[in-house]
Amino acid sequence: MEKLANDTIENLHSILVHFPIALLVLLAALTAYVVLRPQSGMLQTTWLLLVVGTIGAIAATVSGLVSHAPYEETDLHGVIETHQMWSFGVTALFIVAITWRFISRRRGSDCGGSVSFLVLVVIGTGLLVMSGLTGGDLVFDYGVNVRGVNPLLDK
Fold this sequence. Notes:
Elements: H1 2-16, H2 18-36, H3 43-67, H4 77-106, H5 115-140
Helix pairs in contact: 1-3, 2-3, 2-5, 3-4, 4-5
């Protein structure tokens, strides 16, 4: 049971990270659709995607901080730091987006269908792509968190 708990904690980041990627990319696409077709009825869906995607991004960021601890004193630390900075940027930007949209909704007008909100979401998606690319490099180029390849992990 202890091994299962340790494996789950070690692998939590790689499990969690895919949800915000999917949700926030879908958010960008649907926000563009809402801007082009304001009467589409998708505005509420974009709000839900923003909320769940941002919560997922926060969870992925926190789990990433936890799972990078074994690599703190290794040569990979700099590469991991680059991935972390992109990820912090993504998470911070979507926290700004959710805050802006929440305030807007409380005031009776939802900014989710505006061009300026779309620009913010597209920038966030660009940061998300960079975070994903650097995360993919860590796995595929350096073997981070890959058993049998990475000497820091038990086989």
